[in-house]
Amino acid sequence: MILSSDQILKADDLDREIVNVPEWGGDIYVREMTGKESFAFDEWMDENKDDKKRLVRGWHALMVVLCACDDKGALLFNMDQYEDVKSKNKDVLERVAKAAIDINKLGSSDMEDEAKNLKGKASSVSAIG
To answer: How far apart, in whole angstroms, are the C-alpha atoms of residue 127 and residue 129?
Structure first.
């Protein structure tokens, strides 16, 4: 069967999985990022590459904003809520972000290693500055 552009654009092609978040009172879904969301993620990482503290402290919340969704795949948050999401429990954000990293095949160990490396650099920079 040859697909039309309309069929392609209407296709639900983003995988989702449930993440249990008892601290928030239940479950949420995380899903794969769209091309646009992936670009936003890359852009945010690039824009913040020189601000190590912001990068280390912000990427978990960013993954939640870009990947937490309802059962139909509609995002729960938008970028205007990024700072609000950052105010949530860091352990919860890390757990949800890990699920988002896994479903997006970003390589969670690579992301965690990068965050640890940046965290070390950020603390040494703040100790100097």
So the answer is: 6
The answer to whether 114 and 81 have CB atoms below 8 angstroms apart is: no
Nearest to 119 by CA among 60, 24, 54, 33: 54
Set out the domains of the chain in order of their start, with CATH numbers. Answer: 14-128 (3.30.2220.20)
Least confident residue range of 52-56, 66-70, 97-101: 52-56
| Mean pLDDT for the stretch of residues 24-40 | 94
Cβ atoms within 10 Å, residue 122: 18
- 21-37-24 Cα angle (round to 5): 15
Per-residue model confidence (pLDDT) at position 124: 33
CA distance 108 to 81: 24
Q: What's the pTM? A: 0.75
- pLDDT tops 80 at residue 119: no
